[in-house]
Amino acid sequence: LSQPAITRAHILRAAGRQFVEGDVQHWWLPHSGQGVRTHISDDRVWLALATANYIKVTGDKAILTQAIPFLEGKPLGKEQHDAYFKPNVSEESASLFEHCARALDQSIQLTGEHGLPLMGTGDWNDGMNLVGAAGKGESVWLGWLLIRAIDLFAVYALEQETEADRLRGKHWQEHAEKVRICIDEQAWDGQWYRRATFDDGTWLGSKSNDECQIDSIAQSWAVLANGTDQHKVMTAMSAVETHLIKQQERLALLFTPPFDQTTHNPGYIKGYPPGLRENGGQYSHAAMWFILAL
Q1: Rounded to two decimals, what is the model's pTM?
Q2: Which of 146, 203, 236, 269 is geometrically suited to a Cys-Cys bond with 192, CB 3.0 to 4.6 A?
């Protein structure tokens, strides 16, 4: 809000770390450009969300026309979780709008059997790197994030000069509505929204689980993504207050109970002691999202 030029520069910098196919480096080293290419799923969605929020605050629609080159590198194999290398800068450049759009297009392509986004080797919680590593597990939280990004960004597609881009925007909106319906119909667990499915279809973040029965971010983002069933949304938020807000300890936990003995291995998150970091501790992003949802 106070220094939008910093945000503008970083949005363009981040867009420059996107491969031609639409996915992006999960992280990179600024001095060399070396970084890691992964199947982590949420990386594609944040650019459109951040860009739309930036325009909303500043009114700077001109940023959408800024030309930025893509990266080129060997795509990952299906069984390959990640690769660390220095990509080449492509001769192909495109507007920031196209960078955002290409990422959303790929996110929509990566949809699972329940109509939800594929988890890949982690969504925001990259410690859950084995939940959907085989390419079938789906993320409820990522569904909410994708809905919110489309709600904010599709308007700019509808304003584009080409009919193809305007149709693109309508397609995104139609897909977002399908995801919203799928979450309400398939991911509701009676008192809160489930978190994800494993590759074998088993639900995570359900009252039927011994561990990770309720996850904060699947509830707070139901609010942040303007979930349509207000009774479910309010019930889910109340469940977070009941199960995850620890008044005496002054903590807002990410989920409970933490992973420890579960037979379904969610990934390296299970390597943290129960209640530490991503494994059911208080995690800054999730705690802040819950505050914003409140």
Answers
A1: 0.97
A2: 236
- In the chain, count of helices (H) and strands (E)? 8, 11
Containing H/E element for 172? helix 163-186
Q: Are 103 and 45 in contact (CB under 8 A)?
A: yes
Say how many C-beta atoms besides its own lie within 10 A of residue 174's C-beta. Answer: 12
Instruction: Please write the tens of the pLDDT for every residue from 123-169.
Output: 999 999 999 999 999 999 999 999 999 999 999 999 999 999 999 99
How does strand 196-197 pair with strand 25-28?
A: unpaired
Q: Are 50 and 135 contacting, i.e. CB atoms less than 8 angstroms apart? A: no
- Asked if 235 contacts 191 with a C-beta cutoff of 8 angstroms, the reply is yes
CB 166 within 8 Å of CB 158: yes
Beta strands per DSSP E along 45-195:
67-72, 82-85, 88-95
Integer-rounded Cα radius of gyration of the chain: 19
